[in-house]
Model the fold of this input.
Amino acid sequence: MVDLDAAQSLGASEFDSVALARDWAEHVREAARRILIREGAVLGVGLIIALVVDVALLRGTEALDHILTGLPAQAVICLVGAAMLEWVPRVRAHPHAFGLLGYVVVASSAGYVLGELGGMDGPFFYLAYLLPCVVIGLPGSLPTRCAFTAAILGSFIGTFAAMRPGNLAHQFAHIAWVHLTLISSAFIYFGHALHETSRERFVLAAVARRQAALLEHDNRTLADVVHVKERDLVAATDRAAHVRWEERTHLARALHDDLGQLLISARVHLHDLERALEGVRHEDRVEQLRSVIQDIESSARGIVTGYRESDVPFEVAVEDLVESFRSLERVEVELDLRCQEWEPGPHVRDVCIRTIQEGLNNVLKHAQATRADVSVVRNGNEVRVRVSDDGAGILETSAGDGVGLRGMHERAESIGGRVAISTAEGGGTMVEVTLPVLSDRLDDDAGRLV
Done:
C-alpha cells in the first residue's frame, strides 16, 4: 500500500504530505457526497416502483396497508436527502453525518414495516443480509465504515422486533446472527480494501501531477536556456559575419589601392621601356610582358570583385563578373540575365556567383572555346544558372571529377540545389545549377550548414 508518508519517496523531496492529506480528506468527502446522492436517487425511484407494483398486486389486502404506512415515506426521505446533499451547503459540508442519519431513518422504517409483515421465518428478514453491502463503496475510514454498518443493522433489527418482540424468536436464530456477522465482516473488509486502493491511486495521481509540474517547469527552464544560447549563437554568428565582411572590404581596398598603384607604375615603366626599345629585336618580349601585366590586372580585378560583390546588387555583381572575363579577350561571353530585380539571400547569391565564376574559369582553362553563354533565370521558386560553351566538350563520366566541379556540387547541394553537366547543342559543355529560392530565414539556416 502507498500511504501519505510514502509520497515523499515517490515524489519530489519537497512533496507536502500535509497538503496531500488535506486534499485526500476533501476528495473523500466529495466522493461520499456523490455516492450518497446516487444511492438516494436510485433507492427513492426503486421504492416508488415497488410501491406501484405492491398497489397493483396487493390491492385490498392487510399487507398493503402496512406497506403504505412506510414505503412512501421511505421514498420521500431518499429523494429529499439526495436533493439536500446536492443543494444545501451545510449538508454538503457533512455528507457522512447526514448520510448516516438517512441510512438509520430508512433502515428503521423498513424494519418496522417488514416486522409487521412477518418474523424471521418469513421472507422479509432476509433484507438484513443485504444491508451491509450498502456501504461497501462508501469512501471513509475503517471506524466510519464499522459505525455505518452497525447503525444500519442495529436500526433495522431493532425496529423489526420493536412492535413484535416475537419476530426474533426462532429456534435457528443463532444461524442468522452468525451469517450476519460473517457477511458484515466480509463487506467491511472489502469495503476498506477498496477505500485503501482508492487512496493509493489518489496518492499516485498526486505524485504524478507533482512530477509533471516539475517536469514542465524544467522544460520551460531548459527552453529559456536554449533560447538564450540560440540568441547568443546568432549574435556571435552576426559578429563573425560582420568581422569577415570588414576583412573582405579591407583586403579588397588594399588590393585595389596598393596593387593598382603597382600595376599603374608597371604600365608606365613598360611604356618607357617600349619607347626605349622601339625598333629593337626584342619587341615581341615587350608584348609578352604587356600581356602578363594585363593578366595580373584582370586577375586582381576579379579578386577585388569577388571580395566586394556582396556590396552591390546581385545583377550588378553578375555583370561585373562577366565583364571581368570579357576583358581578358580570350572568349566572347554573352549574358542573359532574367531575375526581375530579384535580390537573393547571401548563400543563394554566393552559389550563383561561384557557379558562374567556376564555369567561366573552366571555359578559359579547358574548353578551347571561342564563345561562352551565361544565363541566370528565375522561374517561380527556382533559379537556374547555366554556363555553356562551344568548345571541345566534356565526358559525362568525368563530370564529377576535379576540385572545382566537386566544390560546385557541394555548394549547390548544401542549400538543396542540384547540378547537371551535359553536352551543349552543337558541341561543347553545358553546366546547369538549379537552386531553390529560399526565404531569408531558410537561407540563413542553410548557410549555417555550409
Remarks:
- The chain is about 70% helix and 10% strand.
- Confidence is low (pLDDT under 50) at residues 1-14, 396-400, 439-450.
